Amino acid sequence: MNSLRNTFCEKLGKQFLLNVELVPPAAPQTDIGTRACQAFAALSVDGLNIADSPMARARMNPLLVAHLVERECPGRFSFVPHVNCRDHNRVAVRGLLWGAAAMGVRAVLVVSGDSVTFSDDSRTRAVADVSVPDVVGMAREAGLLPGVVLDPRASQWEVEQRKMARKVEAGAGFVITQPLFVPDQLVWIAERMRPFGISLIAGILPLVSARHARFLDERVPGIAVPAELIERMERAGPEALHIGLENARQMLDTARQVCAGACIMPPFERFQLVQEILQPQIA
Question: Which one of 14, 58, 104, 279 is CB 3.0 to 4.6 Å from 4, fit for a cystine?
């Protein structure tokens, strides 16, 4: 895999980047590479971000997913695997980062990891031996460009600002927001992130129903869905997906104006939603 495409690092801060986030399967499914290639290879997608067991539920390892996708679409995508601090000690993190670098991966996204209280296995315990700044520094030592995550809620800004200062000091080279749903909020975040001098990438999650929107708002850390948007989706009934896609397109248009890139996060393996956002006229 040393021939991996590295568009992400080459374009970062120079041209608008568009990545898609993959949540790996919760089983040994060998067709994830085929399905990802079929869904995204013909679109204007630069790379794939690959989550690391979100909601503290076991998923296939991000580097192995990258290998499966690369095997099906050699040289087509850059990969930005996530590395969570919840599940690794210092030994495991270093080994993982060295493996990523050896595979040809050039960027990783360092995340704290969702609380084990969300796990579907009550026996789960967090390792939590390293912090995000710790792993950011280790990624730099391994020759990788580390990115970090931002909670974009205005109510959390003072806390996030202090955290971001430590992450940037440790060597963070880009930041991806948790999903946003209000264009003005993204503009607000972009203005406040400018002094940090690192590339801002907007997280965009297409909402598929009012129930989905309420779940994210009530249960998922770092995500706030406006009540007005939830109410619109409720009124739309079976047409609620159209509201969610319209919102995602609005967020992408805003990201093109104020951010270095965007990362679309299709839920529930509904990969076709990416095409519907990017190419609505043929969806």
Answer: 104
Residue pair 89/130 in contact (Cβ under 8 Å)? The answer is yes
Q: Give 219-272 as a 3 state SS string.
A: HCCCCCCCHHHHHHHHHHHHHHHHHHHHHHHHHHHHHHHHCCEEEECCHHHCCH
Give the up-direction half-sphere exposure of residue 96: CA atoms within 13 A in the CB hemisphere.
25
User: Are 150 and 164 spatial neighbours (Cβ–Cβ below 8 Å)?
Assistant: yes
Angle between helices 183-193 and 240-258 (to 10 degrees): 30
Beta-carbon count within 10 A of 124 CB: 17
Residue 281 banded pLDDT, cuts 50, 70, 90? low
CA 256 – CA 202 distance, rounded (Å)? 9
The residues spanned by each domain of the chain are 7-275
Mean pLDDT of the chain: 94
Confidence of residue 8 (pLDDT cuts 50, 70, 90): very high
In contact, 174 and 201? CB cutoff 8 Å: yes
**CATH 3.20.20.220 is right for the domain spanning 7-275:** yes
List the one residue out of 268, 218, 221 whose CA is nearest residue 244.
Answer: 268
Distance (Å, whole) CA 271 – CA 265: 9
* Measured CA distances, 263 to 45, 52, 98, 101, 163 (Å): 10, 16, 25, 22, 22
189: nearest Cα among 231, 224, 138: 224
